[in-house]
Amino acid sequence: MTTHNVTLIRGDGIGPELAAVTKDVLEATGVSFEWEVMEAGIEVFEAEGDPLPPAVLESLRRTKVGIKAPITTPVGKGFRSVNVRLRKELDLYACVRPCRTFAGIDSYHSTMNVVIIRENTEDLYAGIEFEHDQEDTRALTELLGEFRPKQRLGPGTGISIKPISIAGSRRVVQYAFDFARKHDRKKVTAVHKANIMKFSDGLFLEVAQQVASENADIEFEDRIVDNMCMQIVQKPNDYDVLVLPNLYGDIMSDLCAGLVGGLGVAPGGNIGTDHAVFEAVHGSAPKYAGKNVANPTAMILSGVLMLKHLGEMDAATRLRDAVAHVLEQGEHVTYDLRPGRSHDGASSTTDMAAAIIDALNR
Ligand code: NAD
Q1: Is the minimum distance from the CB of 348 to ligand 1 under 6 angstroms?
Q2: Do the domains spanning 1-94+267-362 and 108-128+163-260 agree at the CATH topology level?
Q3: Residue spans per domain, the chain
Q4: 279 lines ligand 1 (CB under 6 A)
Q5: Which residue, judged by its Cα, is nearest atom 36 of ligand 1?
Q6: d(CA 270, CA 118)
Q7: Is this prediction's pTM over 0.85?
Q8: Which residue's alpha carbon is nearest to atom 30 within ligand 1?
Q9: Is 193 a catalytic residue?
């Protein structure tokens, strides 16, 4: 039996609780793991001055596969997002987020099965930002003001730059087509705002159309992002694989998670050429930290994606079926899946994970 070396990042907030049960559930599949357990996040920042110590990246470079619990990003001041840094450092350019309904979960549509492929390294997340009234910003606003005097750029303007490249767009769109082909999906939809941002989103669309012409066995179409938001709410079954630049992909992921039952059940994976890190769509939910109430499903389903990535198809199917069984039964589920999101009668994180392990052993 192959033993898989995997980096497990415990994160912060609800992260450590979810990491612990996910490890137990993955081990219960019978697959053999050698874990490198790593710490990253807000407590590590407070203790060591860096929320992503070099040892974490070294471990991921060694194992090439990680599963990560959520990590807080302070709003405004503090440190830059560890999640974004990790994706950039390892060049995890494609973020894959399946959004499908499960029987037993109260959702807006009885069947929805869409996969979001979000570009992970460019766009407004590139971190090229200029704080208002700094020297850099003044020079930039003066320059921009010369070209666009009517837009009142000047002192008091913050600036974030949105880089979108041909190479960055090409590889993520190609990934979307490869994903569609591998998973027997029929259509790729590119999502953009090319009517307004002609040189960034326009480029993304142009490249997507070019890549589509090279992958003519899969149907292709494009949608403007605002229209896409409405369409996915009203007619999700018209869509299959969506490919989006970073910001739209981030927003659309939570929108689709909401449509299939909430953030508690939305898994994801960040994929690069050499490395992959799997994580839930949701964040560190600080208000629930340490309370043993958070839903472990999203992180466990991220584990299912990891098992597939490792070639452990049988274990992946068994674990997915075990999760589906517990969700359908509805007896051992956390508060967010209870009628009215009530904490009364809800299972704890550890109880739900134990029920999934029981279902695996049925
Ligand atoms: P969040 O996803 O943490 O929480 C949003 C809502 O969903 C909250 O009501 C929360 O309680 C609930 N929720 C989230 N996960 C849940 C779960 N597993 N079970 C039950 N309920 C759950 O989003 P937020 O509040 O915007 O962000 C909190 C922190 O997490 C921020 O610092 C943010 O930057 C960070 N974040 C990290 C990641 C990541 O690690 N990849 C992703 C998103 C947000």
Answers
A1: no
A2: no
A3: 1-94+267-362, 108-128+163-260, 129-161
A4: yes
A5: 283
A6: 9
A7: yes
A8: 283
A9: yes
Looking only at the bridges linking them, the beta strands covering 269-271 and 276-278 are: antiparallel
258 lines ligand 1 (CB under 6 A): no
Cα separation of 83 and 52, whole Å? 9
235 has catalytic annotation: no
Q: Are 7 and 23 in contact (CB under 8 A)?
A: no
Ligand 1 pocket, mutate which of 263, 288, 351 (most atoms under 8 A from CB):
263
Which atom of ligand 1 approaches the CA of 14 most closely?
Answer: 18
Please report, in tens digits, the pLDDT of each residue of the chain (362 residues total): 899 999 999 999 999 999 999 999 999 999 999 999 999 999 999 999 999 999 999 999 999 999 999 999 988 777 788 988 999 899 999 999 999 999 999 888 888 999 999 999 999 988 888 888 788 787 777 777 766 656 666 667 888 999 999 999 999 999 999 999 999 999 999 999 999 999 999 999 999 999 999 999 999 999 999 999 999 999 999 999 999 999 999 999 999 999 998 899 999 999 999 999 999 989 999 999 999 999 999 999 999 999 999 999 999 999 999 999 999 999 999 999 998 899 999 999 999 999 999 999 98
The ligand 1 atom nearest the CA atom of 297? 18
Burial class (CB in 10 A: 0-12, 13-18, 19+), 345: exposed
Q: Closest ligand 1 atom, CA of 335?
A: 20
Q: Whose CA is nearest to atom 24 of ligand 1?
A: 283
Rounded Cα–Cα distance for residues 277 and 7 (Å) = 9
Which residue out of 12, 193, 201, 335 is catalytically annotated?
193
Find out whether 294 and 18 touch, Cβ atoms under 8 Å: yes
Fold annotation for 108-128+163-260: Rossmann fold (3.40.50)
The count of C-alpha atoms lying within 13 angstroms of the C-alpha of 228, restricted to the half-sphere facing its C-beta, is 25
Out of 3.40.718.10, 3.40.140.10, 3.40.50.2300, 3.40.50.12780, which CATH number does the structure's domain 1-94+267-362 have? 3.40.718.10
Tokens of 222: 């494009």
